[in-house]
Amino acid sequence: MPGHSQEQDRLRVSEIFYSLQGEARMVGWPTVFIRLTGCPLRCVYCDTRHAFQGGEWMSCADILERTAAFHPHYVTVTGGEPLAQKNCLILLQRLCDAGYAVSLETSGALDIAAVDPQVSIVMDLKTPSSGEESKNRYLNIAELKQSDQIKFVLGGREDYDWARLKLDEYALPQRCEVLFSPVQGDLSATDLADWILDERLPVRMQIQLHKLLWGDEKGR
Length: 220
Ligand code: SF4
What we know:
Helix content is 26%, strand content 24%. It is an alpha/beta fold and 220 residues long.
């Protein structure tokens, strides 16, 4: 029977797997992904709908044990929306304490203020074509550190123009690195690259490495 502390720090986990990081600053590094179950958003392009429900209850200790078995340097906590489970904050802290380089992928809809400062946050600002623009919690921008990143997933020129306005409105490039990423199948990566270069935008373009390597599968 699980002990009291295990009950208190458990989380619903969709999957734990080992692959190459496909995006953001740690792109290309072998990484353990801890995908937590559940998300209050429904972005039209979501490719992790399988994480909306189901999963398995695990204590932080069990998650750490499964993570350690891969002997990683990098660990990413993702979802779904990981912060939808309040114990995510405890898990992030324990992963940092265990010595891993930890990143968190979050939708930008929930408060990030209590995330352990050792964690590198990759926070979306949801664009109009996601259908979830109204969920953006703009107060989060003030909480971002230099080592964090803001990500725009762009479905077309309208999204791009909207993102450009947000860059100026919130002085985002002065705050942290900004990522522009095309929605595969909706926006040509070449078009996006040309727009960024034409306008000298201070952003970093990225294409999801894992999709180039393995299509919609998460890894090999
Ligand atoms: S926030 Fe992420 S997991 Fe949630 S619906 Fe949007 S893309 Fe999917």
